[in-house]
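Schema walk-through. Below, the input block comes first and the output block second. Nothing else is stored per chain. Lengths vary across the set, and this one has 375 residues.
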Amino acid sequence: MNVSQNDIDKMLPFGEMLRGFVNQSSISNAEIHRILKERGVFALNNDKSYTVPILQTLLLSPKEFEEVRLSLSEREDNEKKFSREIEFNPNATLFHPDCNNVDINDFLKKNLPSCELKYPTRFTKVDNNPEHLIADFTIIRYDRNKSWYEQKNEFPGKVEIINENGKGHIKITHTAPETKEIAEQIIKQQIQKFKEKGIVAQDAKLKKIIFSEFSNNERFAFFYRLTTHLENDNFTCENIKDISIKPDDNSALPEEIIWMDKMKKILLSGESLNDKFFMKDTKYHNSIILWNMDAVFSYNYRGEKGKFTISLGFPDYPNKFGNAEFEMNISQLSSEKRLSTTDKNKLKSKLLSEMDRQKNVVYNNFLEYLKQQKR
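--- output ---
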């Protein structure tokens, strides 16, 4: 998220400097059109390609620029979430005052020298529950090679640890590659502290949902269950709109999909892609690698109704292949009620957390199903 620069209240950008600032996607066409209209300038087209050149010729007043700047600061970064599991020792308690502080300053200096923590990070209890801990953090990233308005950015992240009668859930929320790296470091440190306290066995390992855990057929089945077999009345899948697939080089392609041969990456966008023959018929699944899917859900959650698009899958597969970890994020959200930017982002975060919880249920049920199939 772009944040106010140290000297932004000491300058009024104009000309080329102003063009780069107002062309950011978080500053709407309507905001620029409104400023021009108040100046008595009426444009026939609200598109920025028409309005920004006009705005460049004007010198904004401090009040006008402040309104534009506030419009920019309302933008929130899209959360991405993944989770892992670990076994805690029976009768273990997670909260210990002497091991809740997280010191990652050395890690930042060595691995992310352009970043700093906005405030110290520590684990605290959620709703005073000693078995549910959370560590929120925000990093400030500096990039002197970018334009003046992009040199300082803030990105939030968090790590949650939950103990349910010995079954441990670790949930990671990140908004940038750097916050993902920091979350990984926080988990590494905290698991080591738990081992020293006897909360976790010395040989315990985190359980991840990774790409290579599934065969091609099983991956299709897992995605299908995530979109149509949720044990939840809050969500209903309406449509599969985007999929990322490729032919498996180690499997012969059926004649009907021979057109996929030699293709390295196939990105399909449209409506009801789940109805395409190679998605519906399981005889094709062994020959196709599916690693990502965007689905549209309707929701009825705590009095709020609307729709959202969620991306499910293994986004790092093109780079990490079998080691890619399952991740999800909500890219679009609409609500029947008019919500402020802050309330909309809070709702998005809650829906994503609930979807992540449902994913864990589906995953564990799916593992049990696979065990029964192999008996």
